[in-house]
Amino acid sequence: MKYPLNYPDFPDLKLLQEQLLEYARLKYEMGADREKLQGVLDRAAHAIRSLIDEAKGLDIDPVLARQEPDSLDAIRSLRPDGPRRLWKDFNKDKYIERLMGAFVGRMAGCTLGAPVEFRSVEAMADWAGYIGDPFPPVDYWSRVKNPNEKRYGVSACFRYTREGLDGVPVDDDVTYTLLGLLIAEDFGPDFTTEDVGKAWVKYLPYACTAEDVALRNLKAGIPWDKAGEVDNPYCQWIGADIRSDPWGYMAPGYPEKAAEMAYRDAYISHRRNGIYGEMFFSAAIAAAFEADDAVDALKTGLTEIPRDCLLAKDIRWALEAGRGIRNHKEARKAVEERFGAMSGVHTNLNACLTIFGLMIGGDDFTRVIGETVAMGYDNDCTAATAGSIAGAVLGISRIPGHWYESFNNKVMTYMNGHPEFKIDDVLERFACQAENILTR
């Protein structure tokens, strides 16, 4: 694969589809034959389905496939040397200080990014100027668009603002962190991917992109080991990446174990670089409980994924390029130039933005999540992960109180039977899992 990525020229298929539908409406309104119009539309749908099947059937690069396996044993055989385990025993006081930082950091980054998810850098800057907020942000937004609209059917957008904040408002990034805890509690730390599927069917009323495909496949009776493969063009998107945190929290200082649990979770919905994204960040978060610098944790995360996979190459590029990147604008430009037409929801480009945010911000938590959000793309996800890693490195005592004091000890989710969690209870439950994993 050559960089910058040179994707094929993508025609504007959405525009063509819209024009076809509007011409069909227009001609029908002018008296065209209904059956003939139906024939045109049916042929268009058939042609699109045939082309999808043709695209799915194209040969892939066998050399790259060998460098990017989907089995855990094969992945481990291709990873570079690494520390594997940094903590030999469990120091609860040290752990809780860093866990609180990581958990709060994740919640803060997600909550800051959620109201402006996928907005361009220019649109966010314009909005900040209009409402009188600094940009990049240094606190939660003072105002949001559509304040009464509910995200995920639970939290009004107003609840993501400085004035409206009362608990961690709902988000899929938030929900999957807590779902990971429930999976470990229900099935133990040696849970299987099949167990993950059972938990999803039990707890998730709905999902998005790759997770939506896998959940619908599971409910349709497709086996757990195929649920992430059938009709899933999103299998390298960021959905598994955002599920990284609980495994790092439950295996502090034990990156190999964190990556192993991440693998078993990711396989239900993702393949190749989608899996590696969750493994990489889970290992990095686990390492952050011992690290004094986020970059050291990221380098440890690299040792748990195949050395020659695309994600590893992109991460190494980001770690090198990040040394010269000073702000969100430069970070966004660098990613656009390297990745071209890659989906803005892809694991790889968003991983690079997360790394840039950590490198720009350093030990300034506010700058880490503020600059990451300001980069755009999937910025609630990237800021959540950056906040988690920075928080684990810094600990709760080094995170400014305005990022978490209004959480008021509660987190909202959309999971079946679990609309709200208490933060202190969640932290204690993660501690129980971590102690069990590190001492057995």
Descriptive overview:
The protein is mainly alpha-helical and 440 residues long. 56% of the residues lie in helices and 3% in strands. The protein has helices spanning 13-29, 34-56, 62-67, 72-77, 92-113, 121-131, 172-187, 193-203, 209-219, 245-250, 255-266, 273-288, 294-302, 310-321, 328-339, 347-361, 365-374, 379-394, 423-439; strands spanning 150-151, 155-156, 410-415, 418-422. The strands form two sheets. A two-stranded antiparallel sheet has the order 1-2. A hairpin with a 2-residue loop joins strand 3 and strand 4 (418-422). Helix 5 (92-113) runs parallel beside helix 17, helix 7 (172-187) packs across helix 19 (423-439) and helix 11 (255-266) runs antiparallel to helix 12. It is globular and about 75 Å long. The protein starts with 12 loop residues before the first helix and ends with a helix.
